[in-house]
């Protein structure tokens, strides 16, 4: 067993680390405070290839493996989880879904722009009454011959306003239940498609999360992804990979908070010495580091499974379940190590603590991950 990263992996990790420190750290507090979308930063991430890392160079992507992707996700998330969710949705849900299941015309028309960051994508599955229970789609797509008519509402959509292309899951034939669900590429500007209100969020406040409304939107048949009825499997398959990205995001939030707590404990003095010299603090650091290392092994294993062509439904769910818990626990402890300073914005850990929570909710709550894991264990 070889735990060593390749030279290329190390280069990608270092490039992401430098980018995050130099380009994302300045202004991260203000963007969080104002709920400001990181337009300039996203443009730079596109130019540097972070938005289509795993897409084949044929379609303008970086042709990298999933291990490279999670290394970059961890580094970006250490500094700015609002930016990393944009990276994650564009790479794992939108680009991967299109490259794996789209046809050649769809890839040429849409993927080439999404992979370079010229355009941004969104993934639209959740609805007011279908979050975890994803088969209960209320959005309808009625087959009209050469097009579909789309009606309904999607909720909590990451990149909701900033996206150019939206992968929308909708029910075509209710009687067929999940086998009557389809996935469509919807373009911003299509008549009847309207971006609704922006959510006021606890964390990842730089990313824009919106409700979307579809009122008699005419979607050409060539914008359906895959065969008729493939939409639910498309969503499930895509989310399985997406969970590896969010697991890496959680890992990054945890390691970012740990590093801040470690560094702070070496300079802050109390009772005549740096606080890291008190076991109360040193033991916290030991726990954090151990849990983060365990989470990193799970994240890497899931990424490796995907790269090897192994099934990664379970390993991705395990990585997300565990890493998101570690993100929550570590950020709370990092605030504690900082004492009163941890509760104010300039020390960053309060933001990381708020950002951590979403990793236990989106792309399937922790309870959903347990469903996926237990079903995987008990099948056969
Ligand atoms: N790969 C392929 N097929 C899959 C699959 C997978 N990973 N998971 C399920 N399926 C298939 C099943 O095989 C089954 O097909 P057949 O009938 O042909 O056998 C079909 O899908 C239905 O499966 P289930 O009976 O298991 O469906 P279920 O209703 O019990 O739900 C679930 C399963 C795992 C709970 C699923 O509903 C789920 O993952 N829910 C959570 C949805 C979610 O993650 N939402 C997040 C929104 S996206 C987001 O957050 C993005 C963002 O902006 C950041």
TrEMBL record:
Domain of life per record: Bacteria
Matches recorded under Gene3D superfamilies: Acyl-CoA dehydrogenase/oxidase, N-terminal domain, Butyryl-CoA Dehydrogenase, subunit A, domain 2, Butyryl-CoA Dehydrogenase, subunit A, domain 3
Keyword field: FAD, Flavoprotein, Oxidoreductase
Pfam families: Acyl-CoA_dh_1, Acyl-CoA_dh_M, Acyl-CoA_dh_N
Enzyme class: oxidoreductase
GO molecular function: acyl-CoA dehydrogenase activity; flavin adenine dinucleotide binding
Coiled-coil residue windows: none
Domain Acyl-CoA oxidase/dehydrogenase middle as annotated: residue spans: 122-217
KW Hydrolase (keyword) present: no
Domain Acyl-CoA dehydrogenase/oxidase N-terminal span(s) in chain numbering: 6-118
Domain Acyl-CoA dehydrogenase/oxidase C-terminal: 231-378
UniProt EC number: 1.3.8.10
Cofactor(s) essential for the protein: FAD
Family statement drawn from the similarity comment of this UniProt entry: Belongs to the acyl-CoA dehydrogenase family.
Protein name (Swiss-Prot/TrEMBL): Cyclohex-1-ene-1-carbonyl-CoA dehydrogenase
Organism annotation: Mesonia algae
Biological classification of the source: Bacteria, Pseudomonadati, Bacteroidota, Flavobacteriia, Flavobacteriales
């Amino acid at each position: 067993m070889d735990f060593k990263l390749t030279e290329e992996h190390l280069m990608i990790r270092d490039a992401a680390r430098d980018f995050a420190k130099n380009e994302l750290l300045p202004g991260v507090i203000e963007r969080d405070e104002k709920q400001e979308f990181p337009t300039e930063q996203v443009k730079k991430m596109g130019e540097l290839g972070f938005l289509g890392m795993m897409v084949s160079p044929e379609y303008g992507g970086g042709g990298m493996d999933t291990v490279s992707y999670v290394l970059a996700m961890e580094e970006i998330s250490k500094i700015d989880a609002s930016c990393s969710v944009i990276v994650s949705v564009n790479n794992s849900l939108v680009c991967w879904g299109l490259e794996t299941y789209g046809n050649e015309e769809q890839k040429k028309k849409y993927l080439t722009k999404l992979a370079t960051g010229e355009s941004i994508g969104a993934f639209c599955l959740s609805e007011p009454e279908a979050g975890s229970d994803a088969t209960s789609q209320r959005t309808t797509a009625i087959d009209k011959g050469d097009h579909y008519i789309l009606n309904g509402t999607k909720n909590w959509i990451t990149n909701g306003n900033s996206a150019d292309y939206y992968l929308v899951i909708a029910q075509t034939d209710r009687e067929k239940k999940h086998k009557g669900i389809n996935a469509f590429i919807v373009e911003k500007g299509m008549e009847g498609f309207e971006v609704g209100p922006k959510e006021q969020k606890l964390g990842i406040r730089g990313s824009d999360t919106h409700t979307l409304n579809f009122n008699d939107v005419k979607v050409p048949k060539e914008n359906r992804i895959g065969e008729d009825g493939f939409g639910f499997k498309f969503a499930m398959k895509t989310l399985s990979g997406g969970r590896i990205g969010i697991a890496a995001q959680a890992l990054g939030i945890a390691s970012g908070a740990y590093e801040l707590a470690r560094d702070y404990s070496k300079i802050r003095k109390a009772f005549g010495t740096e606080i890291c010299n008190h076991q109360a603090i040193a033991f916290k650091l030991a726990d954090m580091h151990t849990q983060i290392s365990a989470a990193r092994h799970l994240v890497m294993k899931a990424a490796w499974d995907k790269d090897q062509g192994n099934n990664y439904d379970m390993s991705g769910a395990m990585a997300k379940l565990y890493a998101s818990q570690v993100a929550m626990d570590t950020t709370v402890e990092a605030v504690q190590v900082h004492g009163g300073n941890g509760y104010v914005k300039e020390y960053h850990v309060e933001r990381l603590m708020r950002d951590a929570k979403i990793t236990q909710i989106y792309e399937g709550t922790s309870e959903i991950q347990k469903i996926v894991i237990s079903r995987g264990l008990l099948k056969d």
